[in-house]
Amino acid sequence: MDQLSVRPTTKPHLAARELWPDPARAPLRELCIFAVKTFRPLTPSQRYITVQDFSDVTKTTPERSLVYTKKKTGGRNNYGRITARAIGGGHKQKVRILDFKRKKFGVAAKVVSIEYDPGRSARIALLQYADEVKTYIVAPDGLKVGDSLMSGPTAPPVVGNALPLANIPVGVSIHSLELVPGRGAQIVRSAGTFATLMSRDEGYAQVRLPSGEIRRIHENCIATIGQVGNAQWENVVLGKAGRNINLGKRPMSRGMVRNPVDHPNGGGQGKSKGGGGRQHLMSPWGKLAKGKRTRNKHKLSNRFILVRRDGRPMKLK
Fold first, then answer.
1. Are 264 and 213 in contact (CB under 8 A)?
2. Which helix (H) or strand (E) holds 15?
3. Cβ atoms 225, 168 nearer than 8 A
4. What pLDDT was estimated at residue 276?
5. Which tens digit of pLDDT belongs to each residue from 125-182?
6. How far is the C-alpha of 290 from the C-alpha of 167, rounded, in Å?
7. 268: pLDDT confidence band, cut at 50, 70 and 90?
8. In this structure, are residues 275 and 268 in contact, taking their beta carbons and an 8 Å threshold?
9. Distance of alpha carbon 135 from alpha carbon 126, whole angstroms
């Protein structure tokens, strides 16, 4: 397959036209623009498929000491009964062991490689410390092989370094946040995401999360400077059912097209029971599927939420 690389441009259609004035006579190509590949529609599914170009990945095999094989369950429990539907098959995967705590304070680490992780949307970076210890971290945007990173209160606030919220300048973009000091990063780890440190007061930092929620987090919690890399992830279109199956997701029919004995939304003549009238859309077990609030009203962490993700202030009783 002939590959064609195109420099990033704000007008990708013009760049393609300069290289191939007649698209019908262009060779079979993978057009690399904005770090996502598109294809000529030689088959129906290729019309919409987009894939990552993996140009940022510098190493294709993982560090053997930091991986283990992921066991497939097929959605079954220890009795062999299906407890989670639409799970099964998929490509073999190895789980990468990431360092979410960054506890080697004050020790410099060198970025050895940027790698692919099948278990997450972000890329991961392999670090090697001065004492030869190797660890994986979530790779932030702009991190390059050969960069030097550090964690701890004395680390400078540059991309990739992990600091307590008390030592991070206000207004800086951060990711991989702890919710409890010492527990390890739990939120803002997906590709392209970032949170913003807004202020600090009385031992707590106010952080705006990617959802828009503003939450109080203890200032001793560790966070990493910068935005998570691989922002192109949101532009990937699977395009066909086979790619979903490769991810371990089996097909599932909609409840509306089933019989009444199989689903609350089943039955009827034609396209009926769409919701909004007498019929309310439900799960197979009779729980309301759309709009029903499921968050515990008395959840202990409610006290730390200042503004909800819809912009309304949190009600505290």
1. no
2. helix 12-19
3. yes
4. 66
5. 999 999 999 999 999 999 999 999 999 999 999 999 999 999 999 999 999 999 999 9
6. 42
7. confident
8. no
9. 6
99 vs 183: CA distance, rounded Å: 11
SS (H, E, C) 76-134: ECCCCCECCCCECCCCCCEEECECCCCCCECCCEEEEEEECCCCCCCCEEEEEECCCCE
| Measured torsion, CA atoms of residues 243, 244, 246, 250, in degrees rounded to the nearest 10 | -140
User: What pTM was computed for the model?
Assistant: 0.84
Structure tokens at 165: 């919220």
Closest to 85 (Cα-Cα) out of 74, 71, 70: 74
What CA–CA distance (Å, rounded) separates 51 from 243?
A: 11
H or E element at residue 200: strand 195-201
How many other C-beta atoms are found inside a 10 Å radius of the C-beta of residue 248? 18
Distance of alpha carbon 242 from the chain centroid: 21
* Among candidate residues 187, 185, 154, 160, the one with its CA nearest the CA of residue 172: 160
